[in-house]
Every structure is written in structure tokens, then in C-alpha cells.
Design goal:
six-stranded mixed sheet, elongated, 37% helix, alpha/beta, 313 residues, 9 helices
Length: 313
């Protein structure tokens, strides 16, 4: 698509410090003034250097709200011009370059995936002089599309998919968004850290620790524990906890705890124990391996009750 090629040529030539890709960010029907941050989140101002914002939505207003010098009337939406006169010509506001792209983005479509992967390649080629933030406002959880399968873990300091660090949905409360960076300004990904490490670096007032703790313990209870019980003969098999489905969720936890990605009973016990002891550590509650292993094999609700106890303040 020519819009994509124009943007890639610009980024390759100008090497912006930060590229922000916002998907599903049309705003003319949204009267919440905070949501203009879908098109330009205030967090971008914390990064030094030049910035490029790529706004992708087939219904994107023209010009995009974030590029307007004064608030547009809210009584009627601003109709976009005809397609042939609204290409992704850059719009400059306050030294920020905006590229509007009138297109329905799909992570699984070849041209869309290749566009993001080429932006990732530019970050790699510049050794992190360029950084990329991708955010989706259509309700999708985009973290599974993070391209470590193509580029490896070495891209993590420079590329961030989903700055809320959770399944953020269509609405984002930007007052709760805190992008974690190390002293060198590189991205830090909480899913790769223990909860204790997150507790040490998360800003005061951030919900990153609470959200990460809830997500991990939910995965343990809903998938790992259930799969363990099925394989032990305590529970009936179900499609939602099939090996193929559980292995996807297991990978989410092995990022933080370094265990192998396999579904043996021994490995499931290892990951479950590591997660629960991590929760107990930040909540100042002790839990022994003997207790966890005993309750895993108790075939009752005692294990779920233990998890609830550990994560409740």
C-alpha cells in the first residue's frame, strides 16, 4: 500500500526517536476530551527527540483531532474528504509529524503485518535510536502479535506493543498509563519480570503490579491448575483448557519465571509454585512448596482458596 511505503520512506530517511502507531483511533464520535490521547498520548512528551504518530482507522476524522489548532465543533462530526484526496500526507503540529491512514488494520493481514515488521526492522537497524509504540483501540489484545518469533527478545528494549500492559479494550484511562523504562530510556516489559521486580520499579499510583498479579493468578487458576487436574485425572477435559490453548498461556508465565514451555506435571507444578511464591513475596504472605503441592492434588477448592488468600490485601 502506497500510504505505508510513504511512511516507511520518511522514517528511514528522518530516523525519528519515537514512532507511535495508533490503530482504531477515530474520535469525532467520542466526546471524552481525554480520548484525544488515543492519537497523541501525553506519555510521548517524556521521550526526547522527534516523534511520528501514525493514525490508522478507516473512519478517521479529517483532519485528525490531535492535529487541530483549536477544538472542532462537537455537534456534528467532520466528514472526511473523498478517498482520493486524503492520502497519508504528513501533518505537522508542534514539531510532531502525523500520518493519517484511512485503512482497516488487521494484524493477520500480510500488508499490515509487513508494515509493522518493517518498522521493527528500522528500530533494530538503528540499534534502538528509533523506538516503536503500537497501541490498538478496537478492543483487541495485541500482545500475542509481539514479533519475538521474528526478531527475538533483543527487540524488547526498543519496541512496545500495548503501553497499558494488559488487555486494555477500546477505552483507556490515560491517567493510569505509565510506560516503564530503564535508566537508559529503554522499554521495560513487566511480563518478563517477577512481581517483586515490578514492585520495585512501578511508579507510585500505578496499577501495573495489581494488574499483572491478577492476570498471572487468573492464568494459574483457569488454565494451569485445570490442565494439571485434567492430566492427573481429577477433572474432565474441556476445549478451553486443551494442551494447545494452555501452552499459549503457559508461555506468558515462563517469560517471568524462566521455566520450560511444556505441559508435564512437573513443569506445571514448578510454574505454579514460582508464581504463587512470587505473589506471597510482594503480599508479605509465606507459602511453602509442600502446601502448594498438597493442595494441587487435593481435588477440591482449597487450591483456589489459597490463591485468593495470597492475592487479597
Amino acid at each position: 500500500m502506497e500510504d505505508y511505503q510513504r511512511i516507511l520512506r520518511y522514517c528511514k530517511k528522518e530516523t525519528p526517536a519515537v514512532i507511535y502507531v495508533s490503530i482504531g483511533c477515530a474520535l469525532d464520535c467520542n466526546k471524552d476530551p481525554q480520548q484525544i490521547q488515543q492519537q497523541y498520548p501525553a506519555i510521548l512528551d517524556t521521550f526526547p527527540g522527534s516523534r511520528v504518530c501514525i493514525l490508522i482507522d478507516p473512519s478517521l476524522e479529517y483532519p485528525p483531532k490531535a492535529t487541530r489548532s483549536a477544538p472542532a465543533p462537537t455537534s456534528l462530526p467532520t466528514p472526511p474528504p473523498a478517498y482520493d484526496i486524503r492520502p497519508s500526507t504528513p501533518i505537522v503540529k508542534d514539531s510532531v509529524i502525523f500520518f493519517p491512514v484511512y485503512h482497516a488494520f488487521e494484524f493477520t493481514h500480510l500488508q499490515d503485518a509487513e508494515f509493522l515488521h518493517t518498522l521493527c526492522s528500522l528500530c533494530v537497524e538503528t540499534n534502538g535510536a528509533m523506538k516503536l509504540i503500537v497501541q490498538d483501540y478496537t478492543g483487541r489484545d495485541i500482545r500475542p502479535y509481539y514479533p519475538t518469533d521474528i526478531f527475538g527478545d533483543a527487540i524488547r528494549p526498543w519496541i512496545l506493543y500495548n503501553m497499558t500492559y494488559r488487555d486494555s479494550g477500546c477505552y483507556v484511562d490515560f491517567s493510569t498509563v505509565h510506560v516503564l523504562c530503564d535508566p537508559a530510556g529503554n522499554f521495560v516489559h513487566p511480563e518478563c519480570l517477577s512481581l517483586r521486580q515490578i514492585h520495585q520499579i512501578a511508579p507510585t499510583g500505578s496499577r501495573i503490579l495489581q494488574d499483572e498479579m491478577k492476570e498471572r493468578t487468573d492464568l494459574v487458576c483457569n488454565y494451569l491448575y485445570r490442565r494439571y487436574a485434567v492430566q492427573a485425572g481429577y477433572k474432565e477435559p474441556a476445549d478451553w483448557c486443551s494442551p494447545a490453548n494452555v501452552i499459549v498461556h503457559l508461555r506468558r508465565l515462563t517469560l517471568a519465571y524462566g521455566s520450560p514451555t511444556n505441559l508435564t506435571q512437573t513443569n506445571l507444578k514448578r510454574v505454579i509454585l514460582a508464581c504463587l511464591q512470587d505473589v506471597g513475596d510482594v503480599m508479605d504472605k509465606e507459602v511453602s512448596a509442600e502446601t502448594v503441592y498438597t493442595l494441587l492434588d487435593a481435588n477440591n477448592y482449597d487450591f483456589i482458596n489459597l490463591v485468593s488468600f495470597l492475592r487479597t490485601p
